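User: Is it possible to get a 3D structure for a protein together with its bound compound? The compound here is zinc ion. I've pasted both below.
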Amino acid sequence: MLESLKVKIVEVAIKAENYGLCKEKAGNFSIRDKDTGYILITPSGIGREELKTEHICVLDLDGNVIEAEKGIKPSSEVLMHIEIYKVRANVNAVSHTHSLYATAFSVANKPIIPIVYESVNYGGYVDIAPYERPGTLELAKSVSKLLLDTDACLLERHGLTTVSNDLEDALLKSRYVEEAAEIYYRSLVLNQFKEPKAVDIDEFAEWKYPEEIKF
Ligand SMILES: [Zn+2]
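Assistant: Yes, that's possible. Here is the predicted structure of the complex:
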């Protein structure tokens, strides 16, 4: 069922690995089907090199597995995805990665301030959900609470979760956060760990295409 969404998830999961956002069997991706309300998610314990559409699992918001190949289980972090969909009606895709720089900030317990304009694409400021054991309802609650009014959050000592209406866009947000984290880190190193100036996101939100350019 829902084959086109399964194809999309496999494509995005492979792209995420190729972009260096997740390695080995870490990272998980999901889409909510708008018609049925079902969640489609990557499986537990299968790396991207062998990931196929038949490995994608289908669940409802109560955690009932609607469809899964024999021997295949949904990602161990599926509860986090479910809780996010429960609290964000306008979100239909979730990307969870362990990318290097973003995860380093999560380990240092240091939020990523908006230092480049691209930060506006995910809410500007990436805060940190307090540590809870991976896969637990406690972690799911902690992350979904932070994502109530932003599209990206770090998970303390763990990684990054981004959300969107579309999985390609959720992946793009993961890339923007990872890039911002790397630039932030490098600017700190270059400047003896003096904090860089943050971008005023509110001001950028009012930006309009220049009238001087005429079509
Ligand atoms: Zn994880």
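The domain at 3-205 is CATH 3.40.225.10 (L-fuculose-1-phosphate Aldolase). The pocket of zinc ion is lined by residues 26, 77, 96, 98, 134, 158-159 (CB under 6 Å).
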